[in-house]
């Protein structure tokens, strides 16, 4: 019985690790490399080929712009042909307002979110505030989302984990 339980735990752990690797490492990299992005918003450590913008400068990137608010971007309306928002919108307080601002500055907005099969990312209450109800990573409209249970409590009590 103990051996059976250990096998089940090992299989679940392997699935979680493989799903997260496929989603975050392979899927995100494939989307980032699809094209040169006019604006790579909340870029982290990735160069999208155009303007890279974030609220924190994680490392030296070409054409980097430090921004003070994701809800009031310092760019003109329609300034960018393409905007990439990768693995960011699940962290923000107001996804609708953020997405509206992305639509204001970009002609085509691509949002990349953790898909439901990446359970480890979807249920990450230390970092994420929202669950996006989708099996796809890449979207050109804002997918349906719901509040991640207990995320506010954990993040208010211990702080939202970040990678700065």
From TrEMBL:
<protein>
    <submittedName>
        <fullName>Methyltransferase domain-containing protein</fullName>
    </submittedName>
</protein>
<keyword id="KW-0812">Transmembrane</keyword>
<dbReference type="InterPro" id="IPR029063">
    <property type="entry name" value="SAM-dependent_MTases_sf"/>
</dbReference>
<dbReference type="Pfam" id="PF08241">
    <property type="entry name" value="Methyltransf_11"/>
</dbReference>
<keyword id="KW-0808">Transferase</keyword>
<keyword id="KW-0489">Methyltransferase</keyword>
<feature type="domain" description="Methyltransferase type 11">
    <location>
        <begin position="66"/>
        <end position="108"/>
    </location>
</feature>
<dbReference type="GO" id="GO:0032259">
    <property type="term" value="P:methylation"/>
</dbReference>
<keyword id="KW-1133">Transmembrane helix</keyword>
<feature type="transmembrane region" description="Helical">
    <location>
        <begin position="6"/>
        <end position="26"/>
    </location>
</feature>
<dbReference type="GO" id="GO:0008757">
    <property type="term" value="F:S-adenosylmethionine-dependent methyltransferase activity"/>
</dbReference>
<keyword id="KW-0472">Membrane</keyword>
<dbReference type="InterPro" id="IPR013216">
    <property type="entry name" value="Methyltransf_11"/>
</dbReference>
């Amino acid at each position: 019985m103990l051996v059976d339980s250990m096998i089940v735990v090992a299989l679940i752990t392997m699935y979680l690790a493989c799903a997260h690797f496929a989603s975050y490492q392979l899927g995100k990299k494939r989307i980032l490399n699809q094209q040169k992005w006019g604006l790579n918003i909340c870029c982290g450590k990735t160069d999208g080929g155009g303007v890279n913008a974030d609220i924190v400068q994680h490392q030296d990137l070409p054409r980097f712009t430090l921004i003070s608010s994701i809800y009031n971007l310092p760019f003109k309306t329609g300034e960018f042909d393409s905007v990439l928002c990768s693995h960011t919108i699940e962290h923000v307080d107001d996804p609708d307002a953020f997405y509206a601002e992305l639509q204001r500055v970009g002609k085509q907005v691509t949002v990349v979110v953790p898909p439901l099969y990446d359970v480890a990312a979807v249920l990450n209450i230390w970092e994420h505030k929202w669950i996006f109800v989708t099996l796809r990573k890449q979207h050109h409209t804002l997918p349906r989302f719901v509040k991640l249970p207990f995320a506010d409590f954990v993040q208010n009590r211990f702080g939202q984990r970040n990678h700065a």
